[in-house]
TrEMBL record:
Cofactor(s), by name: Zn(2+)
Protein name per its UniProtKB record: Alcohol dehydrogenase
Domain of life the protein comes from: Bacteria
Residue intervals of the Enoyl reductase (ER) domain: 11-343
Family according to the record: Belongs to the zinc-containing alcohol dehydrogenase family.
MF GO annotations: oxidoreductase activity, acting on the CH-OH group of donors, NAD or NADP as acceptor; zinc ion binding
InterPro entries recorded: ADH-like_C, ADH-like_N, ADH_Zn_CS, ER, GroES-like_sf, NAD(P)-bd_dom_sf, Zn_alcohol_dh
Keyword Metal-binding appears in the UniProt entry: yes
Taxonomic path: Bacteria, Pseudomonadati, Myxococcota, Myxococcia, Myxococcales
């Protein structure tokens, strides 16, 4: 099969022919129909993820068709169209037993712990507990765009923050996760303030339904600007970028008893950001992490999409060929363009 492979962190990936994968006893092999390009893939290529072993094939936002299944797989067979969370649970640890596969003790992550979906085929472990059947009307590109960004954002907004209609949501960073959060927040009946440092991204945020936008480099105090726009602060604030500045501003922009959700990854030198803990105490704020979404939680999200309450297709940006993904991956730190870039030609 053809796959994008890198031999060294920050080295130029290459498009190569490598052996086709075989399914494990509990796994399947998928023919990849589409794969998203995510900033998490860039972090992995940079060497920020300790789970990656070289040589490596990136890619964790995917949709495809089952072409082979292991002897222990019961729920899936060749021809089934599926997607999956970027964190797959083992099905046997205490976290999986409690329904929290997104923090599984022995998690499988295509594109990180194992080779991923920048390839014609990808092998997936623990298939029975982690694959999600796609609605017949949903194409592969749309399904791949749900990937880690839309699904992660859905769980952060709906399940972790428990955002309600009539509340204010502040979104810091208007990339794929942030724009997803805006769409989801508006679908729930919330008002949204979007923060970014790019005019094009703020325009996209407004088009997605943000009631107000804040340019992070043009106001002296982002948190104060949000407090003024919302009449006292956001009920829920999300750091969708993953940076010490956006994390700090997100917490400070909350009203009393507000909820901060950290969705953007804090890697490398950003692992331990400063937090205004005095405000956390005085305002009785809640700080929540959010790490993907379990396969069993997908029906809520897919149901809203099928009813027309959510339309993730609005967030799809560029469609590229597998060979073009090499340059796109290397340039993800430039934050060029808006929307989700998806590989749809292999």
């Amino acid at each position: 099969m053809r796959a994008v492979v890198y031999e060294a962190f920050q080295g130029t990936p290459e498009l190569r022919t490598v052996p086709d994968p075989s399914p494990s006893r509990d796994g399947v092999v998928l023919r990849v129909g589409a794969s998203g390009l995510c900033r998490s893939d860039w972090h992995g290529w940079m060497g920020h993820d300790p789970d990656i072993r070289l040589p490596h094939v990136p890619g964790h936002e995917l949709a495809g068709e089952v072409v082979a299944a292991g002897a222990e797989v019961r729920r899936w067979r060749a021809g089934d169209r599926v997607t999956l969370p970027f964190v797959c649970g083992c099905g046997a640890c205490p976290e999986c037993a409690s329904g929290n596969q997104q923090v599984c003790d022995h998690q499988f992550q295509p594109g990180f712990t194992h080779w991923g979906s920048f390839a014609e085929y990808v092998a997936i472990r623990y298939a029975d507990g982690n694959l999600v059947r796609l609605p017949e009307e949903m194409d592969d590109v749309t399904a791949a765009s749900l990937g880690c960004r839309f699904a992660t954002s859905f769980r952060a907004v709906v399940h972790q923050a428990a955002l309600r209609g009539g509340e204010w949501l502040a979104v810091h960073g208007c990339g794929g996760v942030g724009l997803s959060a805006i769409l989801i927040g508006r679908a729930l009946g919330a008002s949204v303030v979007a923060v970014d440092v790019g005019d094009d991204r703020l325009r996209s945020a407004a088009a997605a339904g943000a009631s107000a936008t804040v340019h992070g480099l043009r106001v002296p105090d982002v948190a104060r600007a949000i407090q003024e726009l919302t009449g006292g602060g956001a009920h829920v604030s999300i750091d969708a970028l993953g940076h010490p500045t956006t994390c700090f501003n997100s917490v400070r922009s909350l009203r009393k008893r507000g909820r901060h959700v950290q969705v953007g990854l804090m890697l490398a030198g950003h692992r331990h950001p400063p937090i205004p803990m005095d405000e956390v105490i005085a305002k009785e704020l809640r700080l929540l992490g959010s790490h993907g979404m379990q396969a069993h939680a997908y029906p809520d999200m897919l149901g809203m999409i099928q009813r027309g309450a959510l339309d993730p297709r609005r967030l799809i940006g560029r469609r590229v060929a597998l060979a073009e993904s090499i340059e796109a991956l290397q340039r993800m730190d430039e934050f060029a363009g808006v929307g989700v870039t998806v590989i749809d030609r292999f």
